[in-house]
């Protein structure tokens, strides 16, 4: 128990440090724009790698999409941010899996008495559901406007969600908002950009549909969870 707890503490400390970095030390939109402009032909590479690192530091993906659309246009800007977001999310997921999953397994299996036991039992059912319905679970959370892309990635790494399901769900869940904000950025200079209304309606429509489906599935009774019933690979 001691080593998993230490690794989990390191994960929490690292996430808090990344959040502080994102809030106080990372470049603003003007700084990102200047860095990409100075990179010249390597601008797209810098955009992808920069998005990867900024996502891991929990910088808002929507802000990255806006700036990328502003600099590269709708199509390329959206592609660069999506690539960087998935790379950053994958790395954050693997860090969460390495440092946090064993501790979560131990806590959920302990089942103490009283209210803590009831909370652990409910969390275990949710965890087991994510192991069986990872894609839907990830998409549902990704479409929530309050979820931070990087923070959620670390959290999913500690859950029973499989990496393949996480990656697919993250890709699908990132498309509407990335599309919308890249379109907003492209519309600043590009007259042929997709209308903002279409981007917003598309994102809101998909958000409503998937969240409704996800909540409906969560309410359905599932099988009883046990530590051996979910593969965490």
From TrEMBL:
Signal peptide from the UniProt entry: 1-25
UniProt keyword terms in alphabetical order: Cell membrane, Membrane, Signal, Transmembrane, Transmembrane helix
Record carries keyword Ion transport: no
Pfam families to which the protein is assigned, alphabetical: VTT_dom
Membrane topology note: Multi-pass membrane protein
Gene Ontology CC annotations of this record: plasma membrane
Segments traversing the membrane: 47-72, 135-154, 166-190, 196-215
Keyword match Transport: no
Main location: membrane
Boundaries of every VTT domain copy: 59-186
Location of the protein in the cell: Cell membrane
InterPro entries xref list: TMEM64, VTT_dom
Family membership: Belongs to the TVP38/TMEM64 family.
Protein name from the UniProt record: TVP38/TMEM64 family membrane protein
